[in-house]
Amino acid sequence: MNYETAAQLLELCRKRGLTISEVALQREAAEQDAAPELLLDRMKTHYRTMKESIRRGLEIDTSSPSGLSGGDAKKLWDYAHSGRPLMGPALTRTIAYGFAVLEHNAQFGRIVATPTAGSAGIVPACLLSLEENEGLDEDGAARALFTAAGIGIVIGKNACFSGARGGCQAEVGSASCMAAAAIVEALGGRPEQACEAAAFALMNTLGLVCDPVGGYVEVPCVSRNGMFAVHSFLAATMALAGTRCIIPLDEVILAMRDIGRRMPRALKETSEAGLATTPSGLKFKPGPPSESR
Amino acid sequence: MISAFDVIGPAMVGPSSSHTAGACRIGLITHHLFASPPVRAEIGLHGSFAATGSGHATDRAIVAGLLGLAPDDARIKDSHALAESRGLRFTITAVDLGDEAHPNSARVAAESAGGESHVLEAASTGGGMIEVRSVDGYATSFGGRSETLLLWHADTPGFLAKVTTLLACAEANIATIRTSRHGRGADAFSVIEVDQPLPEDCLSVMSRMSAVRALRHFPRLP
Q: What ipTM was reported for this prediction?
């Protein structure tokens, strides 16, 4: 049941008449020698932790220790319920959820790295949105997380999730890619459509650099998690509509790896360029590590 | 082998999977190298760990791991105070581990009250996953994603055969095994990852083998 590429994953789905989620679940069950029900329960626990991080994030009304974030998730939530939010209440709440996880994260809150902490808001925001608007239940959410993991495994094997190695495209790009596939399967889309959605999401995050202000996982990370949750819905929409994605997911992932390798070190989580070195960004630069007790 | 729970997870205290959760796990593996908890540690941060480590609480997370805390422990943010109360003294500095080192790397040299000392170099490779690159100068590669057995031993003929026989008797399935040594017939270091928890009696017999200098084992890292 193992696979290295999206093409192999789709072949497994086709041969056995399974979804990506089911392949990922069966692979895990075989590998860990554990019952699928047990693994689904573990995913449900993760989903509850995700929702708790959203709930806690929406309550934040104080600044993070760095002063770079805090209180914006709440503002978006209020705007979503203000009567006439520009993008409608559902999508506006989705943005708020992405913000909420990252604001909670910035205040040393408990989150689930999905696939990383800096991109931990995207998949949860999308799933909670589906729960509220499409009737996704907890079991469905756990299965959607296996879809996300199924795609994530391909990225992990062929590229990486590390901002320090691949830039933000490896973190937020990967999360958005995984979320897009999860949305499609949760809505009953075929595995091929899920991979198309994943490819659309990832190809439109390529080149995204990791230049966090002050080195903190806050600017632009908080807003980026809100925005790229919506990006996942856009990619899912395109795939569900049957839009053609010319470059297959495997090739987009390899392009991401290639771009990550060519990306200058200064733009890969070192905060030596980009937003981090703008006049406003530099005001938040901390001193070098030196501590002794 | 990447697990679905490597991609979705770990549940962790923020703000960064590589700089906080991964750093905590590096500290935690160092903790597991010791029979009794270390009381002194020199922590060297390389690359992005050094550049953006304080904002990501890398400094607090590695210390938390050295104290045995898991990546989702709420006490990570107060680990420096906790270290003081538990008698762990430490220094944190920026180091250069060379161009070949992963940008998120750390070198931890630690010592216990009984005089046991170890040096570990490890990289945080993304999403909270880590890879130990060397232990006490032995090149190695493991990430704490399975039940792990560490053996410091003499490089004698048939050593691994005896160890694997013992593991076979305990019906433990070996996932990976890696030995490195300083030279022929010199001291060696082996890492064995197994699929199931190892029974105490098997470990007890193994630790009494004449070639074994030290044996440590720890479960899949939280």
A: 0.95
